[in-house]
Amino acid sequence: MDPGGALIRFDGGCVLCRGWVRFLLARDRAGRLRFAPLEAPGDTVVVETAAGTFRRSDAVLEVLKRLPAPWRWAGLLRALPRPWRDAVYDAVARNRHRWFGRDESCPVLPPEGRDRFTGGPRG
């Protein structure tokens, strides 16, 4: 895996998660982020990098640090204790379907981003 790249595994039926992917696609001009659905959707996003696998708030911060400024500055949030960060992450994860909705339909991918999606687990 590209040392600056990451594979982001997300809940494809979650409207918030799909919005997160669109946000990342629009800002990752270098094209180093890749995307795949989670094997078993849960309340976390999983990010795989050359440095390891990240979950919850660590995953979000790991992805944001790969974007241009000002988004990479969110890495400063690592100074906060992980239990605090994860508590906020968990609250959003628990309520995301109620707040943002759920959509099991297959999304239409923009042509310029289709090559950055993999059909399933590990690849």
Automatic annotation (TrEMBL):
PANTHER family named among the record's database cross-references: DUF393 DOMAIN-CONTAINING PROTEIN, THIOL-DISULFIDE OXIDOREDUCTASE DCC
Where is the segment annotated Disordered? 103-123
Pfam families, sorted: DCC1-like
Q: Which organism is it from?
A: Mesoterricola sediminis
Taxonomic lineage per UniProt? Bacteria, Pseudomonadati, Acidobacteriota, Holophagae, Holophagales
Q: Which GO terms describe its molecular function?
A: protein-disulfide reductase activity
**Name the UniProt record assigns to this protein:** Membrane protein
Report the transmembrane regions from the record. none
